[in-house]
Amino acid sequence: MYINNHIAGMPAGYLFSEIAKRVKAFEARHPGEKVIRMGIGDVTRPLSPFVAEAFAQAAREMATPDGFHGYGPEGGYPFLIEAIIKGDYASRGISLSHDEVFVSDGAKTDTAAIQELFSPDAVIAVTDPVYPVYVDANAMAGRLGSHQNGRWERLITLPCTHENGFVPEMPKERVDALYLCYPNNPTGAVLTHEELRRIVDWAGDKGTLIIYDAAYRAFIADDSLPHSIYEIPGANEVAVECCSFSKTAGFTGVRCAWMVVPKGVKGLLPAGESVSLNALWRRRLASKSNGVSYPVQKAAEATYLPQGQREIAENIAAYRHNAGILLEALNGLGLDVQGGAHAPYLWLKAPGGMTGWELFDYLLGRARLVGTPGEGFGPSGAGCFRLTAFGSREDTIIGAQRIQDALKAL
Ligand code: MLT
Fold this sequence. Notes:
CATH topology of the largest domain: Aspartate Aminotransferase, domain 2
Bound molecules: D-malate
Number of strands: 17
Strand order of the largest sheet: 2-10-9-8-7-3-6
Order of helices and strands: HHEHHEHEHEEEEHEEHEEEHHHEEHEEEH
Structural class: alpha/beta
CATH architecture of the largest domain: 3-Layer(aba) Sandwich
Distance between the termini: 53 Å
Radius of gyration: 21 Å
């Protein structure tokens, strides 16, 4: 059998697997030394007890004749879809119908899978630096051509750097699909209503689909900033939105997310006839998924109940506090830092002209601390470095001190 050469030809390993491999090798060479992890954006605080109880209760229910659930609806149980619409959209003045929300096991899964609806030669644009999943999924589908000198031949990259204030400039070329993530992973940048409105208007003019990843929106500290792209008029005709319980409710190991595919979003068939993405996504799901388990969806529903809301808010506040600790330490060093205020990520320019990978090696060796080199997120990430605020308070304080000591010594 001949294999998919687009997967075989992918450069190196997946970013976070590559980092985990390097850290494991380092730990094997330095047994017993505590390494502080600020690399992958994985949460560390335990589940809210209220949410965990709903999870357990649903599992117990499954062990009774009346409470047993077999295959659920592939797009999610109505009770969870209702809770999502009420808690995350109606509360911000956005109206969605039940059949526009699809529950899944992760925003990673959804942002990687949506490209299956695009034509094989669709033109893709991403902000740069970018969460690698959007790029890798399109590359594996053969849509990006070859990879040379760190760039994909057919990918349009929109630089978001310290120099342009992390606001992407829209391209002149035709683009079929544009991936956006705000609050941004990896830079921690946010867009104002006005900035997002300009992009939505551009997409409407050009016939471009926006895939909006809002996985980090619970970290937005300023209520006047857009939490959902559907706060922008017209977005329900140009955008799908992915969101997740992973970072909001500590579900990275539980797995639950959703994607909104409004019925007004259309694509074109080769003959020019328009077709609803919502219908296509439902069709695809019916063939490829049996949905998310009942206990997981009951746990997710519990995050919207008052006690669940209070408990998950405490976790988010704790991570925000960590971000504040890191921000203060980095600012104290006079570094050029972005993020941390509305996102669990801090993005800095590596000091002394180092590359991100040089800083990675330096901090791992000298401070026993893991971050993520900016190069892993795309060409505009060169010479930058990402830290996450998802550690414990104790590790964050130790880590901030170690970074200060290590960088002062440079
Ligand atoms: C990250 O570190 O960028 C995220 O944890 C990756 C993810 O959410 O899959």
